Amino acid sequence: MRLFLDTANIERIRQGVRWGVVSGVTTNPTLVAQEGRKDYQLVVKEICSIVDGPVSAEVVVEGVDDMISQARSIAAWHPNVVVKIPATPDGLEVTSRLSREGIRVNMTLCFSANQALLAALAGAAFVSPFVGRLDDIGQDGMALVKSIMDTYKEYDFDTEVIAASIRHPMHCVAAAQAGADIATIPFNVLEQMIKHPMTDAGNARFLADWHRVDGQNK
Ligand code: G3P
Fold first, then answer.
1. 22 closest CA partner among 191, 197, 199, 200
2. ∠ at Cα 152 (189, 74), nearest 5°?
3. pLDDT per position in the chain (218 positions), as tens?
4. What number does the ligand 1 atom closest to the CA of 136 have?
5. Is there an atom of ligand 1 within 6 Å of 164 CB?
6. From atom 1 of ligand 1, which residue's Cα is the shortest distance away?
7. How many angstroms separate the alpha carbon of residue 164 from the centre of ligand 1?
8. Which of 30, 32, 188 to mutate to test the pocket of ligand 1 (most atoms within 8 A of CB)?
C-alpha cells in the first residue's frame, strides 16, 4: 500500500516527502480553505513541485459542461494533477468523458461499492471511499474498502482504490490489510504511525548507556 498525504499544507508535504514515504497528495476545497490560501492553482502547482506523484485537485462547479471545462483547466496545471470528481450522476458522465480524453480522475465522496463499480466502469484512475465519514454515521467504513477490493479483484479494472477520510493509525493498518492500493492520510496520522513510547524510551536508554561507555573511553 502506498501513502498519500491528505493536506494542502506545504510544510507538512515537504516533511512527508523528506521521510521518503509519501508518493502523492490529495486536496479538497476544505483542506485548502484551512490553510487560508485562496489561489488553488498556485497551491496545487507548489505541491506538484514537491511531490513526484499524483496530486488530486477537486472540481468545484456543478453541471456536466462546467465540470468538464474546469476539469480540463485543472488537469493542464501540471502532468501529475488528477481531477477529483464527485460520485454523482453528473460526475459519472464527466468521469467517462474525461477518462476517454486521457485525463485522470479520482472519483471522490464514494460511500458504496456500487459507486466504486461505476467509477471503474467509467474509467476513473482512482476511487476514494470515505472511511471515517461512514464510521461517523455508525457504519463500518473499512468494510466498504474490503467490499470494493473484493469486487475489483474479480475483474481486470485499472482503477486504484484510495482509502480516504482516514482518522487514526488503526485505519492505516486496516486499509493495508484490506488490500487498499493507497491510503491518503492527514499528517498527524503519519506522525502517529511512526511514534511509539517504547521506541522513545528504548532509544533514550540506549543513548544514555552509550554516553556512559563513551565517557569511560575518554
Ligand atoms: O480525502 C478525503 C478527506 O479529506 C475527507 O476527510 O476527515 O474530512 O472526512 P474527512
1. 191
2. 60
3. 999 999 999 999 999 999 999 999 999 888 988 999 889 999 999 999 999 999 999 999 999 999 999 999 999 999 999 999 999 999 999 999 999 999 999 999 999 999 999 999 999 999 999 999 999 999 999 999 999 999 999 998 999 999 999 999 999 999 999 999 999 999 999 999 999 999 999 999 999 999 888 777 66
4. 9
5. yes
6. 164
7. 6
8. 30
DSSP annotation string for 146-166: HHHHHHHHTTT--PEEEEBS-
Cα of 117 vs centre of ligand 1, distance in Å, is: 21
Place of cell 468521469: 95
Cα of 73 from ligand 1 centre, angstroms: 24
Q: What is the spatial distance between Cα 137 and Cα 52, in angstroms, rounded to a whole number? A: 35
Ligand 1 in reach of 29 Cβ (< 6 A): no
Name the burial class of residue 103, with classes exposed (0-12), middle (13-18) and buried (19+) by CB atoms within 10 angstroms of its CB: buried
Residue where the block lists cell 467509467: 122
* 84 has catalytic annotation: yes
